[in-house]
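Title: Comparing notes on inverse folding

I've been comparing how different people in this forum approach sequence design from structure. To keep things fair, I'm posting one structure and asking everyone to reply with a full sequence. Here's the target:
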């Protein structure tokens, strides 16, 4: 939904969401506010499972893992991936890039629509986990965007190894 000249009720709703911390996963795409619900229990569980599996790989690669973070340069254009792996501990609210972002597919989400933004912010790889299909897909950045590679060059692991290592939610 795009509202032009949003009425005061919408501004009050956004302020209430901010006050309650319900806006943690909301995003702004080139000035357009995307109101995103928090993760379901299955989503959060898979997020934790991926962190367990990927942490030693990231450490071996010299990377630092984070949970959801704000990827972007300012409040008018940012995304909030489910997790990330960085070359150093991110400072501040606005994180300009990441070596790897992790996205967990949810019904009706915009995971794949975020790829051009990630490319514009020099993210090397994207790991996409689909809890319903029980799959891990890995995309590497090339000259014209991302292509599915089947393996992470950054983390030194293939998608099959991650898939078989995850304790998938039922």
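Reply #1:
Here's my take.
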């Amino acid at each position: 939904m795009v509202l032009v000249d949003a009425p005061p009720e919408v501004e009050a709703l956004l302020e209430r969401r901010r006050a309650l911390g319900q806006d943690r996963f909301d995003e702004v795409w080139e000035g357009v506010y995307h109101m995103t619900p928090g993760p379901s229990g299955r989503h959060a569980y898979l997020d934790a499972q991926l962190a367990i599996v990927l942490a030693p790989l990231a450490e071996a690669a010299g990377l630092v893992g984070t949970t959801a973070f704000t990827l972007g340069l300012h409040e008018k254009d940012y995304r909030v991936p489910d997790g990330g792996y960085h070359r150093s501990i991110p400072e501040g609210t606005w994180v300009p890039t990441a070596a790897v972002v992790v996205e967990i597919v949810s019904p009706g989400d915009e995971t794949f629509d975020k790829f051009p933004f990630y490319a514009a912010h020099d993210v090397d790889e994207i790991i996409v986990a689909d809890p319903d299909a029980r799959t891990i897909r890995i995309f590497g950045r090339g000259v014209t965007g991302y292509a599915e590679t089947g393996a992470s060059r950054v983390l030194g692991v293939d998608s099959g190894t991650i898939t078989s290592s995850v304790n998938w939610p039922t």
